[in-house]
C-alpha cells in the first residue's frame, strides 16, 4: 500500500481544526474544479483533494488515519501498525492489493452498515460560482439566465459522483458588474442530512455599442461641433429607454460631463443611477469652401488665445 499525506494535499497542519480542513478543501476544490481550472492536471488534483477531504472530514476516519503515523513519505510503501486492522477495518488483515483511498472508502461502507462506533455527521454540499454574462438592457429590466452545472452528488453507496444540473435563474433588475448573487440551496447536494450548497452568479456586463457602466451610473461619449459647444444646442442622446433631448449650455468645454438624472441603471431597492454625457469636440473630416471661409473669418476676427497659459508659464 502506498502512503498518501492527506494533510499535505490540503495544505494544512496535522493539528488543523475541522473548520480549517473544510475551508482548505473548498478553496482547492474550486481551484482545481475541471469545469473552472485550466491547469493540465486539474482533474487529478481535484480527485486527490476530494480523497483527502473524504477521510479528514470524518472524525473516526481521521483518527484512524492519524494512527497510521506521519513518518512516511507520500508514495512510500508501508503497512498499518499491528492490530490497526482489527480496530478499524472489521478484522481485515490483507492490505497488499489495497489502495489507501479504497481502505478508507471501505470504512465508510462499514460505518453505514452500523459497525462503526459513532454515527454519520451531516456534511454541507459544495458551493459553486458561475459567470453570468448579461447585456445592459437585461441588467436594466431583469432577465432569466440559463444555468448549466456539473455538480458533485452522493450516490446510493455514499460516494460522490458528477451529475449534470440545469435550471433557469432569475436576475432581478439592478444587477451591476462584479455583483455576486446568491441562490441558496442550488449548489452541491448535502450528505447525511447536511444542507445543500449555494450557487453564486457573478454578474458580468457585456460591452454596449455606446454606453458603459460604472456601478449603476452610465457614461456615453457625446460628440459636439465647436459651434454647438460655443453657442449652445439641443441634441438627442440615446439611453436604455430611447433617445432623450439634452440641452447643451453655451460655452461647454471638451471633457465636460453633462448629467441626465435617473437615466442610468436601476438600483436594487429604489432609485436609478445617472447617465453622464462626456463632451468630445469633433470637426468635419473635410471642409467645404463655404465652411473654410466662415472659419477663416472667425480666426481673423477672434481675440481668443487657447494657449495663453503657455505665455504665462514662461514669463
SSE layout and pairing:
Elements: H1 6-10, H2 18-31, H3 42-56, H4 59-67, H5 84-88, H6 100-112, E1 128-134, H7 136-141, E2 143-154, E3 160-171, E4 180-183, E5 199-205, E6 211-214, E7 217-224, H8 226-231, E8 233-237, E9 244-248, E10 257-260, E11 275-281, H9 289-301, H10 308-313
Parallel strand pairs: 1-5, 7-11
Antiparallel strand pairs: 2-3, 4-5, 6-7, 8-9, 10-11
Helix pairs in contact: 2-3
Helix coverage percent of residues?
A: 25-40%
Any idea of the CATH topology of the largest domain?
A: Helix Hairpins
Measured on Cα atoms, how large is the radius of gyration?
Answer: 33 Å
Count of DSSP-assigned helices: 10
Descriptive account of the structure:
With 315 residues, the chain is of the alpha+beta class. It has three domains: 6-112, DnaJ domain (Helix Hairpins, Orthogonal Bundle), CATH 1.10.287; 128-205, HSP40/DNAj peptide-binding domain (Sandwich); 211-309, Urease metallochaperone UreE, N-terminal domain (HSP40/DNAj peptide-binding domain), CATH 2.60.260. It is 29% helix and 24% strand. The protein contains ten helices and eleven strands. It has helices spanning 6-10, 18-31, 42-56, 59-67, 84-88, 100-112, 136-141, 226-231, 289-301, 308-313, and strands at 128-134, 143-154, 160-171, 180-183, 199-205, 211-214, 217-224, 233-237, 244-248, 257-260, 275-281. It has a four-stranded mixed sheet with strand order 6-7-11-10. A three-stranded mixed sheet has the order 1-5-4. β6 (211-214) and β7 form a beta hairpin.
Amino acid at each position: 500500500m502506498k502512503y498518501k499525506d492527506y494533510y499535505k494535499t490540503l495544505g494544512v497542519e496535522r493539528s488543523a481544526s475541522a473548520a480549517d480542513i473544510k475551508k482548505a478543501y473548498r478553496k482547492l476544490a474550486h481551484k482545481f474544479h475541471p469545469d473552472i481550472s485550466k491547469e493540465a492536471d486539474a482533474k487529478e488534483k481535484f480527485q486527490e483533494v476530494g480523497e483527502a477531504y473524504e477521510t479528514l472530514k470524518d472524525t473516526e476516519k481521521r483518527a484512524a488515519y492519524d494512527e497510521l503515523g506521519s513518518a512516511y513519505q507520500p508514495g512510500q510503501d508501508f503497512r498499518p501498525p499491528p492490530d490497526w486492522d482489527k480496530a478499524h477495518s472489521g478484522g481485515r488483515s490483507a492490505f497488499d492489493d489495497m489502495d489507501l483511498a479504497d481502505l478508507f472508502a471501505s470504512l465508510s461502507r462499514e460505518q453505514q452498515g452500523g459497525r462503526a462506533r459513532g454515527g454519520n455527521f451531516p456534511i454541507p454540499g459544495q458551493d459553486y460560482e458561475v459567470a453570468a454574462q448579461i447585456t445592459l438592457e437585461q441588467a436594466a429590466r431583469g432577465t432569466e439566465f440559463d444555468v448549466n452545472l456539473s455538480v458533485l452528488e452522493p450516490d446510493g453507496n455514499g460516494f460522490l459522483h458528477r451529475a449534470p444540473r440545469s435550471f433557469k435563474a432569475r436576475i432581478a433588475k439592478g444587477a451591476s458588474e462584479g455583483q455576486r448573487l446568491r441562490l441558496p440551496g442550488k449548489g452541491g447536494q448535502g450528505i447525511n442530512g447536511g444542507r445543500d450548497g449555494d450557487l453564486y452568479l457573478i454578474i458580468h456586463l457585456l460591452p454596449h455599442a455606446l454606453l458603459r457602466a460604472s456601478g449603476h451610473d452610465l457614461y456615453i461619449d457625446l460628440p459636439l461641433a465647436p459651434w454647438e459647444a460655443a453657442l449652445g444646442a439641443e441634441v438627442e442622446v440615446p439611453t436604455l429607454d430611447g433617445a432623450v433631448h439634452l440641452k447643451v449650455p453655451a460655452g461647454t468645454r471638451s471633457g465636460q460631463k453633462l448629467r441626465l438624472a435617473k437615466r442610468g441603471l436601476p438600483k436594487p431597492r429604489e432609485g436609478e443611477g445617472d447617465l453622464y454625457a462626456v463632451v468630445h469636440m469633433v470637426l468635419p473630416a473635410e471642409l467645404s469652401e463655404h465652411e473654410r471661409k466662415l472659419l477663416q473669418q472667425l480666426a481673423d476676427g477672434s481675440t481668443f488665445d487657447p494657449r495663453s497659459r503657455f505665455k504665462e508659464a514662461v514669463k
